[in-house]
Structure formats: C-alpha cells, structure tokens
Design a protein that fits this description.
By secondary structure, this protein is α/β, with parallel strands linked by helices. The chain has 14 helices and ten strands. Helix 1 (3-21) packs across helix 14. Residues 1-36 have low confidence and may be disordered. The protein binds ligand G3I.
Length: 353
C-alpha cells in the first residue's frame, strides 16, 4: 500500500483509540461501568523501547498553561531552545545569568523530565563582548574554557547531556570558519569536550549539527572526526542529528545506516531538533507525507540500539522557529497552532506502539 494511504488508515485507527481511551467513543469491548484508562503518552511509549521522547521549549512560552500542560505530560526530555546559549548565560564577560536556563531545568524537574542541555560552543547567538573584538589564541582559549566550565559546573547533576559544540562543519565537510576555528584551529573541539568532561564527568557530551541525517560529505566529516576523537580518548559520547527536514528536499533515506555507523564507533546518537517543514499552505497530502517522515525517523531510531531518543524542536506550530526563518514555510511540528495533534503525532505514536 502507498505509504500516504497507510498513514491515513493508521491515523483513523489511532484516532479511534484516542477517542476510546478518552471515553468519547465506545470501543468494541467496552462494557457498562468500564472506566476510561489513561492514554499512554509519547514518552510512555518511547520508554518501552528504552528511548526518550523530548521537546524543545523556550522561556517566553512558559506562561501559556495549555502549552505547558502538554509539554509537562507528553515528553520525558526537555531542551531549552535559547536559554543556555552563550548570549543568555554570559551576557557580559565573566558575569553569568542562569535565569532562563534555571527556569526550564526547574520546570523539567517538576515534571520528572530530564534535560538535554544546549549549547556551549556555537558561532551564533554569541554575546557582543565576544564578537566585537579580536582575541589572541591564548585569550580566547581562556575565555572559552571559563565559559564552558562555569556553565557545565552550574548545571552539574541536573542535566543529562550537553551539546558541547554545535554546527562545526560546512556542507562540504570542511570546518566552518567560526571565531573559534579561525583563532584556535580544529583542536578547539577536543579541548571543549575535555573541559566539559572535567566540569561534569557524568553528563553525556555531544557534537550536534543539521544536514547530517544522511550519509554524505558533512556526516562523513563527523564520522572521521568522531573516530579520531575516540582513538585519542577524547570524552565524546554522542552525535546529535538535528533533523530539520523540509518536504521539498526529500527524505534522508540513509538515516538508519548513518545512525548505525556512529553506533559502531561506540557512540550514542540522537535526533535532537526534529521538525519537517513544508511550503504553506499545508494540505492534507503534505501533512500525510510529513506524518510518514516522522514515522520513518522514529522507526530508524528504534532500529538502531544506540539511538537513545528523539527531541522535536518544540512540539507545536504555535512556537516554531520556522516561519520567521523561512518565510512562506511552516506547519513543521506534530501539534498545530491550536495545540491539536496532527497526523504526524499519530504517526509517531504508531511507530512507537
Ligand atoms: O531575545 C530577543 C528579543 O529580545 C526580541 O524582542 C526578539 C525580536 O525578534 O528577538 C529575540 O531573539 C530571538 C531569539 O531566538 C530568542 O527568542 C531571535 O530574534 C531569534 O533569531 C532566535 O531564534 C532562535 C534561533 O535558534 C537562532 O539561530 C530560535 O528561537 C531557536 O529555536 C533556534 O534554535 C537553533 C538551535 O539552537 C541550533 N540548531 C538550529 C535551530 C534552529 O535555528
């Protein structure tokens, strides 16, 4: 059967299950006096496979209680979308501000959720004091080490993992010429991992990037670097594949093979920032295709033992970063702007169930 038709059938089945579970419709075996049982959440279903199911979130959204209700019960891993980035945590040199990150860690704790912390070293969203002057290599090394170790120490014991270095490579697999690379050379990555490990030996340490879902020049660069770092006993635990996909560019068919080759190096992998955008308006067909992609990604992760979990880059179209960055595109997430589950939500359930 064509996979889009399969999606429609499965959605109908899943919807019936939801209605029965919610007590809105009677299932075939329902008896008078039966009490509706609680529908297992995405996190419950993922947990049965030893995986987590996470969502990013951001501080301004936390006043929306309808939003935080779903965030608090459907997921078991939370990533702060902005609150732990350098501009937020060290707005002036040596002056640290944990307000935004702490708020999200506290919220996650109150819902018994873990935290994928994001991110220590990135070329974007850096504070002005860091980007508005030049640094010698010695100066920048000291600044970088202090930033990493102060932040990692602050969150020691409260976060599951860190995206230590984010987006270090170009599409062709060459190093991205960031402030850190041009001043310190490629060794800044191993240094950052070692410094983070010193500050919290229990946190899982990741390199994280987009467009590395398929086997290709950029994921090959990560594979080569990861192999080299493992051989040098640099504390690297995992590779994060962001998975910001777009219907118009095709599905990364080699995702599962790609996850598997990193596993064979002894590394964890995770899908860390999943969304599947489309050119608007969203049609039934596009939403069905999107649902297939979410199902396929979930199945790929479940098929590879060391793919430890999936995080969507916020769960609802209401708070997606896409429309602001890609005008005319959106509808990328499994819940719509009214917080209603879309076909993609049922497809993830279906893959996990
Ligand atoms: O904080 C200011 C606020 O003061 C101002 O009023 C407002 C007006 O536009 O902007 C606010 O800053 C925004 C910031 O998010 C915090 O909300 C920036 O404009 C906006 O560009 C920024 O976008 C973030 C983006 O990273 C920056 O590149 C997104 O929220 C965040 O979801 C996104 O996340 C990245 C990951 O970290 C790495 N991978 C890609 C992913 C998507 O870009």
């Amino acid at each position: 059967m064509h996979s889009t038709a399969r999606t429609r059938l499965r959605i109908a089945g899943a919807l019936a299950t939801v209605l029965v579970a919610a007590g809105i419709a009677a299932g075939p075996a329902a008896q008078a006096g039966d009490r509706p049982h609680r529908q297992p959440t995405l996190a419950d279903l993922a947990e049965r496979h030893g995986r987590y199911l996470g969502s990013a979130t951001d501080n301004p959204e936390l006043t929306d209680t309808a939003y935080t209700d779903v965030l608090g019960h459907e997921f078991d891993m939370i990533t702060p979308g902005n609150g732990m980035k350098w501009y937020a945590t060290e707005p002036q040199q040596g002056v640290f501000d944990w307000t935004a990150g702490d708020e999200i860690v506290d919220l996650a704790r109150s819902h018994h959720q873990r935290v994928r912390a994001h991110t220590l070293v990135w070329h974007s969203q850096l504070p002005d004091w860091l980007t508005s002057r030049t640094w010698t290599a010695d100066e920048l090394r000291a600044v970088l080490k202090h930033h990493i170790q102060t932040e990692v120490r602050h969150y020691r014991g409260t976060v599951y993992s860190w995206d230590v270095v984010n987006e270090a490579f170009n599409e062709d697999g060459t190093y991205r010429e960031t402030l850190f690379y041009t001043t310190l050379g490629p060794g800044y990555i191993a240094d950052a991992l070692r410094w983070a490990h010193e500050a919290d030996p229990h946190a899982k340490l990741y390199l994280n990037d987009y467009n590395i879902e398929a086997v290709g020049p950029k994921s090959d660069a990560y594979y080569a670097l990861a192999r080299q770092l493992r051989a040098q006993r640099v504390p690297l635990d995992g590779i994060g594949l962001q998975a910001h996909l777009a219907l118009q560019y095709g599905y990364p068919a080699s995702l599962e093979d790609n996850l598997r080759r990193f596993s064979r190096l002894g590394l964890d992998t995770a899908l860390t920032e999943v969304d599947v955008r489309m050119q608007l308006p969203a049609t039934e067909d596009k939403l069905a295709r999107q649902a297939d992609w979410y199902r396929d990604m979930t199945e790929a992760c479940l098929a590879v033992r060391r793919c430890v979990g999936i995080t969507i880059w916020d769960y609802t179209d209401k708070y997606s970063w896409i429309p602001a960055f890609f005008p005319g595109e959106g509808a990328a997430l499994p819940w719509d702007e009214q917080l209603a589950p879309k076909p993609a939500y049922y497809a993830i359930r279906d893959a996990l169930d």
